[in-house]
Amino acid sequence: MAQQERAIRTRRAILEAAGSVFDESGYDSATLSTILERAGVTKGALYFHFPSKEKLALAVLNEHVDEVQAPSQPTKLQELVDAGMILAHRLSCDPILRGGTRLTIEQGVAKHQRRGPLLAWRDHNLQLLTEAKERGELLPHVVLEDTAALFVGAFTGLQLMSQILSDRADLEDRVVVMFNHILPSIAVPALLGTLDISADRARDLMGKTLTTHGG
Amino acid sequence: MAQQERAIRTRRAILEAAGSVFDESGYDSATLSTILERAGVTKGALYFHFPSKEKLALAVLNEHVDEVQAPSQPTKLQELVDAGMILAHRLSCDPILRGGTRLTIEQGVAKHQRRGPLLAWRDHNLQLLTEAKERGELLPHVVLEDTAALFVGAFTGLQLMSQILSDRADLEDRVVVMFNHILPSIAVPALLGTLDISADRARDLMGKTLTTHGG
């Protein structure tokens, strides 16, 4: 058991080192030797968990969506907002998320593999929106697939713009603007006023439930 | 005059070749020899117009916004929609726009230079929104700067997502979804119904006024 825990911790250290190297250098320029040096693990340990740079990149990409879990809320739309605000907040500090983002955005990893995080995230939104619809939270005309994909695309571009213009310092503000512009088109009016869409939302939530994630 | 025309045509041929090479290979892997071969110009002509790869990349980046000019319309919000729809349409065929997009999205060109197209486009939106406000087209609570930047960020991400998932085949549909979700939050209701937000909008406009651009 202690050995299994050590393996999990080693795998995590490698993923975090890989995320930060992919974030800084991109896929093509990243080297396994830089990653293992930063992770502080042996070459044997690295290859045991990830037999190639490509496998390592895929693991970083796939970790992306699992990283963001918002706690249960009275409405599904609040959970949708919370997931976006938590992701915005964690992009400022989580090396795996940052690395996965650059791998998704830039060409380098094969295109069919860059789809993974986008589709997983869209499906996550679709699930929340489907439940929101069943609970009567949505206006009748909403096309769930369109709205689910719009949030993914819009967020992806806003984080890129925020990275270029402010090193992501204004990302949470930009995501608040996005929700404030889009939610009135999908939420029933009575619910709209109950949503907490503030730039501090992630910090408030993390203070309560996400402290174990560190950051 | 004939000589000047030839110089303009040569410069254009170089920019288009550079755009397509930057689009395919990214900044770091693009070479001047590939570009001049594709442009069908001599090394002397290339260096006369652009003394370095960096200068060439900057010219492609700066051409970006000038490429999209929407014709005058009865409302400024329609012009804002039209500019977005034309940009979406032209991204499927214009090598300079495609190359400029990849240069903006990917790290490679210095960050302060990648800001140019984003800021120019935000300013273009801000100008249109300012005029829209003066004409009474906007709801009173709209914060012009926020909305202007939101359109740039959201569009940037949607085109990236569309490129990854469908080689931009569904981009115009995705941009329609974006406008349909955001415009109800900013336009006065009486105007909203007058806007033409359809995936064929760019083709309709280009049939009338943009045929000289080719594409």
TrEMBL record, chains A, B:
Name assigned to this protein: Gamma-butyrolactone-binding protein
UniProt signal peptide: none
DNA-binding region of this protein: 31-50
PROSITE patterns on file: HTH_TETR_1, HTH_TETR_2
Gene Ontology molecular functions: DNA-binding transcription factor activity; transcription cis-regulatory region binding
Pfam families: TetR_N
Keyword Transcription: yes
Keywords: DNA-binding, Transcription, Transcription regulation
All residue ranges annotated as the HTH tetR-type domain in the record: 8-68
InterPro entries registered for this protein in UniProt: ArpA-like, DNA-bd_HTH_TetR-type_CS, Homeodomain-like_sf, HTH-type_TetR-like_transc_reg, HTH_TetR, Tet_transcr_reg_TetR-rel_C_sf
Keyword check for DNA-binding: yes
NCBIfam families in alphabetical order: ScbR_bind_reg
